[in-house]
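Hi support team,

I submitted a single chain yesterday and got back a structure, but I'm not sure I'm reading the token output correctly. Could someone confirm the output below corresponds to the sequence I sent? I've pasted both exactly as they appear in my results page.

Thanks,
R.
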Amino acid sequence: VTLLTDFGSAGPYPAQMRLALAALTDVILIEITHDVPRHDVRTGAYLLRAAATQAPSGTIHLAVVDPGVGTGRQALIVQSGGQYFVGPDNGLLMPAARQAGVPGAFVITDAALIRGIRSGTFHGRDLFAPAAALLARGTPPAALGVPAPDVVDLDLGRGDRAGRLLRGTVLYIDAFGNVVTNIPADLLPPLGRRIEVQSGRRRIRGMVRGMYGEAPRGTLMIVSGSDETVEIAVREGDAARRLALRAGARVTIRER
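Hi R., thanks for writing in. Yes, this is the structure output for that exact sequence:
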């Protein structure tokens, strides 16, 4: 069972979810992160998708970035490609589920699970963790809910090429200040090609590299990142800060 939330690593909430799972089933718990920016469903969806690409069949992903907790939003189990995704119906689960296979979504309606909700503000502990535990014990999703008539989807987009321009959106900025975009890596210009990255009024020149260590220290580069998308980096520096970029920003890369 993987866990992803915006609860923050320092608070008690991740531990309470882990303990809820431990009380109900003996599973291997893998933390994706609990430091998704608060209420940032889009970043959470990207991180969940990135992790799910490495997950074996049978993995259950418990993901909670849930600004609408306690409202009428649906609680979902999504089955796709042998994996299961448990969390709120706000788009968080769908990019990962689509990447895994053909999603089939269920709205959680099991009476015992619903009765177990103790707090209108903590469905991660009271509803989603017990549902994930039941899945881990072999309960099929259809026994815990009914097919969802519709779900909230979220499209992370796909960057494109227009002549000598690559155009895309920032999906994520990692701890090194590397900028992960939604531009497919197969659109990269050849290694060694000079480029210019533009965001707003800022323009910085660099080069296409095969790896970080090929660039001189402090210089900008674009590389094929670990998720097979174009990544903007500065060797031993912070590309996001230099370009004043954040998640969701538009970015253009021009071949020179």
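A quick pointer for reading it: The two ends are 46 Å apart (CA to CA). Let us know if anything else looks off.

Best,
Support desk
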